[in-house]
Amino acid sequence: MGSKAFPESWILGEALATLVRAGGVANVEHRANLGGTEIVYQALRSGEIDAYPEYTGTIAEVILHSAGRPTLAEMRDSLAREGIGISAPLGFNDGYALAVTQVTAQRRGLHTLSDLARHPDLRLGLTHEFLGRKDGWPGLERAYDLHMRDLRGIQHELAYGAIESGAIDVTDIYTTDAEIAHLGLQVLDDDRGFFPRYDAVWLYRLDLARRAPAALAAMQHLAGRIDETRMIRANARVVLGKQPFQKAADSLLVEALGGSATRAKPPGVADAIAKNTLQHLKLVALSLLAAILIGVPLGVVAARFPMLAGPTLTAVGLLQTVPSLALLALLIPLLGIGVVPALVALFLYSLLPIVRNTFIGLTTIPPPLLEAAAALGLSPAALLFRVQLPMASPTIMAGIKTSAVINVGTATLAALIGAGGLGDPILSGIQLRQRDLILQGAIPAALLALLVQGAFDLLDRVVIPRGLRRPTRG
After folding, report:
1. Which residue in 166, 2, 170, 151 sits closest to 96, CA to CA?
2. What local confidence, expressed as pLDDT, does residue 458 receive?
3. Closest Cα partner for 72 from 202, 180, 169?
4. What is the C-alpha separation between 229 and 106, in angstroms, rounded?
5. What DSSP string runs through 291-335?
6. pLDDT in tens, 173-199
7. 339-363 and 389-410 are packed helices; what angle lies between their axes, rounded to 10 degrees?
8. How far apart are CA 415 and CA 402, in angstroms?
9. pTM, rounded to two decimals
10. Cβ–Cβ < 8 Å for 392, 363
């Protein structure tokens, strides 16, 4: 089971996993925080997950790229050609809307979206996804003939703090967000009916009917059983009540289906930090080792053959310019989700400092030293391993050290594709605006970077010949 990187999706994904377990399927895993729609849907198509919660409006706009508003039956027919099924609606609509504070609404006379056209000076803070979707700001702007002068992108979980503090006047919200009532926001009426419905459904692989019919049967139990009130209550338990989303999922199932819920006590903070740190270290170590084994020889080849130097350095440089989230999304159709694509991405990002520093180290050795070594009659291999690489070792080790420290920070993004590590608590903490969760990932990551730096400082004493080491004070 999968879920996207926001609390409602976590709750629904966990509720689905619990239902499937109760239906007799013992081996059930819930992979939370799988980024946005494109990432989690690619994971479903590739078979890395079997089901996840989705919304009909998102299916039409982001997955099917529909120009109109297809019916559920039409969407079901379209996705069936890709081996994907759509369940019956769960019972609630979690749609887009724009909201303002009561003070702003009264001061500006805002009741409907049409009223915004009279106030182009309002400061809008809209989520990045909303800014890029046709059923978001681009379409809304045309439908209501809006010409707002102050428009900025903002993360959804930070928008509520911004509007509460007065940093922005208007933001987009999901209609089942618990913060709406908590902050007393006024939702502007969509008086021209622009926004489609976003009915919650399960997307699942059609081959479940053959592979795990019990799971498919369990999936239908929540159809029509969760209304907006229940979903808002479940979201509030996590976002406002600071409950673990697993506990909120259990409460939602009890409300929707009756009965009682029992769950093992979750691991403590220390255990969670240790588990995430070990996973993070594994990602960094394996990807860095691969980068060293490939990057140093590439640097040697570039130094030995000047014709290859330009293409090699350009290629590894271009890899560094690809945005990390984009690279992860591109790797999912090829490698799925989890550890493997994360390792590949981290390996690619680690190459540039190692290749470049190896090349620079080998090409900046003073020519008289190379001439003296050649006069000794050394073979090319002996010249490389006994003279050139030792002479270049300080520069090469500096590149490896740089790559390792950068790798520790970049590896936090691996959590977006289900690879775990210290990015998990950071992502969850950002979504929930819980500083302690963010620190559970950020502090160990910073300490790990310092430890890696120190470890390579010690390794310098082994790898770099004594005469080439930097002098130490004292």
Report:
1. 170
2. 87
3. 202
4. 27
5. HHHHHHHHHHHHHH-HHHHHHHHHHHHHHHHS-HHHHHHHHHHHH
6. 999 999 999 999 999 999 999 999 999
7. 150
8. 22
9. 0.76
10. no
